[in-house]
Amino acid sequence: MRTKQLIKYTLFVSCYLFWVASGLMVAVGIYAKLSKEASAVDSLLADPSLILLTVGILMFGITFVGCTGALRDLPVLLKIFAWILLIILILQIVAAVLGFLFSGMVLEKAAFLMGKAISGYRDDLDLQNLIDYIQKKFECCGVHSYKDWSQNIYFECQDSNPSLERCAVPFSCCIQKDKEAAITSVLNSMCGYGTQNLRSWKAESLIYTEGCMEKIVGWGQRNLLLIAGLAIGLFFLEILVFLMAVMLIYQIDLIIQKRKSTRRRGPEK
Known about the structure:
Helix content: 55-70%
Mean pLDDT: 85
Distance between the termini: 25 Å
Low-confidence stretches: 37-45
Number of strands: 0
Radius of gyration: 26 Å
Number of helices: 9
Order of helices and strands: HHHHHHHHH
Strand content: under 5%
């Protein structure tokens, strides 16, 4: 079938790039999952490797259908691909509208999930690394306050807690006064010990006392244009891929109809 080569191969290349990216996501997710301890948390919302695997597998399957349909001019696969893309676009619009209308509920849910992540800090190495990265990146500690770390059984600030880390916070909460020297020097993992017992005005000289939720929301507000630009760019890219799939389907159907009409005319002659 002779379809317009530009549309066909542009669609194929677009799907192929996302297919390769999804394959890498699946590989990283599998590696992260296999390298964990057997006691790791297996909750989808609390396990970054599971999220990576789920998204990667879905993307891999969808883009594989798009690649095969575009390369082989198969209208059935292209229609499946186009319908899936349309559903994803609708879900994204609905999610954006609901997130805007119910932003308060979204923040509450995010805070709940962050609190749950803090509770499982020592149970999942991936989750632990993710929390440490967020706290160091945004220079924060806990969800709303450094005392949120009492939600974790190891850091719980109760006299009945036998843990050596009682009333402590993770090292990622600690203020690194000389960041360049901290990279080359030995990490003091006990720098947050006993800080939950301190008043905020005294603790703020040793650790970050502001919660990560406020810091992340503030970062989002300051970079709103960049985030919105990336989101809109990705959304329009998805629309472009969807339109190319529809155009290719239309061209293939048109060619099939022409062939059928040519065959009907042949016997009449």
